[in-house]
Amino acid sequence: MKRLFLYAAASLLALTTSLFAQGTGMMAAPTTPVISMPAPNLDGCNSCPSCYDQCGASCGPRFYASGEYLLWWLRDNKVHVPLVAGIPNPTNLGNVAEASLANPNARILYGPQEIDTGAFSGGRLTLGMALGDEGRLGLELSGLYLPQQSESTTFRSNGTTGLILPYFQPAQSFFGFQINPNQEAGGVVAGPVTNFLGATSVLSGAVNIDSKTQLWGLEANSVYNLRSGNGLRVDGLLGFRYLGLNDDLTIGVLRSDSASTIDSFKASNNFYAGQIGARVSWIGERFTVSANAKLAMGVNNESINLRGSSSQTLDFGGFGTFTTKSGNQGFYTQPTNVGRSADARFAVLPEIGMNVGYRLTDMVTLQAGYTFLYLSDVVRSGDQLNRTMGVTPGTPLLSPGTASKDPVRVDRYTDFWAHGINLGVQLSF
């Protein structure tokens, strides 16, 4: 699909380059302006709708504005590791062999998987104007906004079914002696746990996984009319492009013994680039059709921010309670990987689109269309999870501890696409 998309964009841009070369070379007749005021009187033509065959594209607006409703689908955020697993009929989840994916009865409940946030509803506003009396050159500003959308999933258990956060524990050694091999393990969210004194308690608990995504963008283009006539016109585009993409992934856990953790993964992308493009339009008395291709090349400023927090209250009976809190570690976020990292990476953003319109009057046109865009390099929050952590085997505590160099930051990169339909109205003056 990417090859077909890039081929279509390249073909339209190549056509524009060819026409531009002809427009600056030997042309049989001067190009008629696209975004100029209606011709004052050309062979009896006073308005565009009544004389398109004679006037061609010589009639056009000086100013135009369009507002569109967008219904778009974005590439889903993705979790690459198993996040939650269930243990049917557990006996003692303090035993690492039982509270892990090594248990043959364990069932993965969440991950690896895409996080489907569904369709996004938003808007796009475009403003344009002709510059100069001839109207060959114009300026166009456009912005799109898709509000933040979220998807949330919660798993709960009263303890009769075990819930764990699975992780992988690398081999550990002490003074050169191996104290445990590579093995699967799990943080206990719910289920029976037997302590070192032989006392068993049944914990209830819940895990909530929440994902949020937001997209917005701006672009400013100069528009140069390369060719027009008989209702057909070709415009070249040259300008600036910005696109912003943010997404968050939060994993929250709460147990009946007051133990809780929060893991927060945030990814931010700010793409700045120069842009070239082309737009081909046909304008009839009532119907209009247009297609465009754009290519932006620039830098994507990418940042990843990992944060965590945890707390646990220990009850010492008549001696009172003691609460421990941490502001820099959760479960998958530990002192070894929390913090912010940033990078500026080269990226390209091709886009294609088309619109079909119906002219209600000289000034009002209803339009519907489709847009597809692709960004070659982004960071997403779900890609940043690392389930390799070092802990003391068999611990029933929710936090995997900090006595290890794991987990390390992974800082993974991927690509991104968005596409959808638009419905709107354009006003021309």
Chain-wise SSE layout:
Layout: H1 2-23, H2 52-55, E1 63-74, E2 77-79, E3 84-87, E4 107-110, E5 113-115, E6 120-131, E7 137-157, E8 162-169, E9 172-174, E10 177-180, E11 183-194, E12 200-203, E13 205-229, E14 232-255, E15 260-283, E16 287-315, E17 321-326, E18 339-359, E19 364-378, E20 414-428
Q: Explain this structure to me?
A:
This protein is mostly beta strands and 429 residues long. It has a single domain, classed as OPCA outer membrane adhesin/invasin (Lipocalin, Beta Barrel), CATH 2.40.128. The protein has a ten-stranded antiparallel beta barrel. Strand 13 and strand 14 form a beta hairpin. It starts with a helix and ends with a strand.
The gist of it:
Helices cover 6% and strands 58% of the residues. By secondary structure, it is mainly beta. It starts with a helix and ends with a strand.
What key attributes describe this structure?
elongated, 5-stranded antiparallel sheet, 58% strand, disordered N terminus, 429 residues, 20 strands, single chain, Lipocalin, mainly beta, 10-stranded antiparallel beta barrel
Average of per-residue pLDDT values: 83
Helix and strand sequence: HHEEEEEEEEEEEEEEEEEEEE
Helix content estimate: under 10%
Q: At the third CATH level, what is the topology name? A: Lipocalin
CATH homologous superfamily (4th level) name = OPCA outer membrane adhesin/invasin
User: What amount of the residues lies in strands?
Assistant: over 45%
Number of strands: 20
Query: What is the 3D shape?
Result: elongated
- Uncertain runs are 1-9, 19-58, 392-397
Helical/strand content category? mainly beta
In the CATH hierarchy, the architecture is Beta Barrel
